[in-house]
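Limitations

Structures in this collection are predictions, not experimental determinations, and the ligand pose is part of the prediction. Treat each record accordingly. The example that follows, with calcium ion as the small molecule, is included so readers can see exactly what is and is not provided: the inputs are given verbatim, and the output is the predicted complex.
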Amino acid sequence: MGQRIAVVEDERDILETLCLSLEREGYEPAGFEDGAAALLAFRDRVPELVILDWMLPGMSGLDLCRILRGDQRFSRTAILMLTARGTEMDAVAGLNAGADDYVVKPFRTRELMARVKALLRRSTQAGDQQSLKRLGTLWLDTATYRAGTGDTVFDLTPTEFRLLELLIRHPGRVYTRGQILTGLWPDDRAVEDRAVDVHIARLREKMGRDDQWVETVRGVGYRMKSE
Ligand code: CA
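Predicted complex:
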């Protein structure tokens, strides 16, 4: 069985083209024309990845993204936003709502397929390493994609998890925004430095009172406290 990918898009042509292409690539696509229908179907089948259009009738793609990110059951679901607007503001809003990546319309199907593949590959890789990393009371399990401290489990998105995993590899080492960008988005594309700050801010928020772990190195980047 292929990996389950949901496409939420009210433009029929795009919806059909994407579903066909995904099927051809060996995935199991399911198409939805609005967010409410998608949410209803997700109750029975949690998708591995959701391709989510921003502008939808009724619930917007951004609203649906927030709902999914607020629900533990979708913590391992990757979200790829489609947006017709290409401003940095919108990209940041999408990432802020918990999206893992975004593609600006109009796009080439081939480019989108490459992004889909990359997002799914990252989730699988993290799941295959099967190791538990520890730093003081902090723990991170790449087999279950969970991280936390003591009995507390952080509610992280796949991107936030990978960010924490990157930082925890070398406690004390400073990572520049550029290095974090390359670590999180290795594909050849231009993600703004600002995206790193957005994800760091969200990660800290999720870590709650344990946010002192991630330190800002002014003018350089970020590092994990070394105990
Ligand atoms: Ca639309």
